[in-house]
């Protein structure tokens, strides 16, 4: 089971590609929601208020399961699709790439547009810091104090991350572990009589 994905750690610096007097400014942003996508596009529309097109593509989800490409008035599949193609080529998710065009008075034709938007997206992603991250599962356990040593031993041996702990009348831990190891680790806790598994959830 693949439990890693690639994304970018922070927004890229602005890049510029020129073709026949048209200017194409490329940007890459880390995003996790469609609301964040809208915010970045609105900000770029204010920044480049004299531009003609703000074309983009994004991919969301740690399993690369949601995406969209937008030509923003350019001929069908001449802008959004080549931008999305670069997201696939760089194998990244939770990323938005926007290419802003200032029309230079000379038409580029569909093949010219495809090349320009693909290049703008490529330059933006080359200019971003790509990082690999793990898909983790969080779960909660609850137990009485006498079982503290048994729980801590599993946590230490399996390199489980303690996200949160509450030691009041009893012990309540929120834990995180890589997805591919989660089932084995949770079974280890279940095997200790008195440790209760309360919830399992894949982290976003």
UniProtKB/TrEMBL annotation:
Pfam families: Impact_N (PF01205). One of its GO terms (cellular component) is cytoplasm. Residues 20-125 form the Impact N-terminal domain. GO terms for biological process: regulation of translational initiation. InterPro entries: Impact, Impact_N, Impact_N_sf, Ribosomal_Su5_D2-typ_SF. SUPFAM superfamilies: Ribosomal protein S5 domain 2-like. Gene3D superfamilies: Impact, N-terminal domain. PANTHER family: IMPACT FAMILY MEMBER YIGZ (PTHR16301:SF20), IMPACT-RELATED (PTHR16301). Belongs to the IMPACT family. This is YigZ family protein. The lineage of its organism: Bacteria, Pseudomonadati, Bacteroidota, Flavobacteriia, Flavobacteriales.
């Amino acid at each position: 089971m693949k439990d890693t994905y690639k994304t970018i750690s922070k927004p890229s610096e602005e890049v510029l590609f020129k073709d026949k007097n048209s200017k194409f400014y490329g940007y890459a942003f880390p995003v996790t929601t469609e609301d964040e996508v809208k915010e970045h596009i609105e900000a770029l529309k204010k920044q480049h208020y004299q531009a003609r097109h703000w074309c983009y593509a994004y991919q969301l989800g740690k399993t690369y399961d949601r995406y969209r490409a937008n030509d923003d008035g350019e001929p069908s599949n001449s802008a959004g699709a080549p931008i999305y193609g670069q997201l696939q080529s760089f194998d990244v998710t939770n990323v938005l790439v926007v290419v802003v065009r200032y029309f230079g008075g000379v038409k580029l034709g569909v093949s010219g547009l495809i090349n320009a938007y693909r290049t703008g997206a490529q330059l933006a992603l080359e200019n971003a810091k790509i990082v690999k991250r793990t898909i983790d599962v969080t779960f909660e356990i609850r137990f009485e104090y006498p079982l503290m040593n048994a729980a801590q031993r599993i946590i230490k041996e399996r390199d489980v991350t303690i996200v949160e702990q509450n030691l009041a009348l009893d012990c309540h831990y929120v834990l995180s572990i890589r997805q591919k190891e989660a089932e084995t680790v949770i079974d280890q806790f279940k095997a200790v009589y008195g440790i209760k598994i309360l919830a399992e959830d894949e982290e976003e």
